[in-house]
Amino acid sequence: MNASNSRTSTHFQHADDIWRDFPELSAGALFIDGINGGVSVEDHVRQFQASANDRLGAGSESDLPEIQAWRRTFAKMGLKPTQYRSAAEALLRRFRKEGDLPSIHPLIDLCNAASLAFAIPIAVFDLSHVSGFLHVRRAAGSERYLTFSGETESPEPGEVIFADAEGRAHARRWTNRQSGLSAIRPQTTHALIVAEALHKTACEDTERLLTALSQAIEQTWGARPSMAMLDRSSPRFDFSV
Questions:
Q1: N or C: which end of the chain has fewer CB within 10 A?
Q2: Cα separation of 233 and 126, whole Å?
Q3: Angle at 174 between CA 169 and CA 176, to 5 degrees
Q4: Which residue spans traverse the membrane (predicted)?
């Protein structure tokens, strides 16, 4: 990690009612500092994509237990699962049809490939655009969400969002869609990575995913991420930016 005398303490956590209403949830997070866009992650991406191809076989992403669990969760939230898909399902669907994903930024390319391999949605946030902290909670209806096209939306009251201290929503419909506000940019130096799953072996699989991703990040950028596995009894990840 990069040494600094001006670090600010921050944290990530899920609200208690999220754990209460979705007791099957397993989550984990990585904090990485010292990243840049001038590296290659091609080998790691190729390995993760090979795993995804093996899992998909001749079938569909909708057959995977990880995706089925998120579909049940979206239905429980009152969302039509085939209209609003988890990020992992959307990536797998595109990958199955096109055989590849577009390159965006080395960190995003790496996380997208890991998401394909494990069929678990991964969110990646540029922390320089997150105020105070980041909580997964239900929206009050007053939050602001910036789309990638620059439009501002207001999440529905009760919708599960990622929100910061200023009431800005950094993801809508839980794992459906991230905000353009905290998207990874060429100048991004520190980021928060969040993985969430709800299937039967979610805890073990989420930890395996984050361990594999952490190793790939360390091999690429030479910096070991801070890692935390989260549950209802230990829902908070504290780190310094």
A1: N
A2: 27
A3: 100
A4: none
Q: How confident is the model at residue 2 (pLDDT cuts 50, 70, 90)?
A: very low
Please write down the HEC assignment for all residues of 131-191. CCCEEEEECCCCCEEECCCCCEECCCCCCEEEEECCCEEEEECCCCEECCCCCCCCCCCEE
Side chain identity, residue 231: D
Tokens of 22: 């979705």
Entry field: residues in the chain: 241
Rounded to whole angstroms, how far apart are CA atoms 139 and 241? Answer: 26
| Angle separating helix axes 65-76 and 202-221, nearest 10 degrees | 110
For 221, how many CA atoms within 13 A lie in the half-sphere containing its CB?
Answer: 21
Asked if residue 119 lies in contact with residue 205, where contact means CB atoms within 8 angstroms, the answer is: no
How far is it, in rounded angstroms, from Cα 148 to Cα 10? 25
**What token pair was written down for 209?**
């995913």
Distance of alpha carbon 96 from alpha carbon 86, whole angstroms: 15
| Mean pLDDT value across the chain | 96
Q: What is the pLDDT of residue 5?
A: 55
Residues 181/170, Cβ–Cβ less than 8 Å: yes
Task: Give the pair of three-digit tokens for residue 182.
Answer: 């905290």
The CA–CA distances, whole Å, from 156 to 77, 84, 88, 159, 219 equal: 12, 14, 23, 5, 41
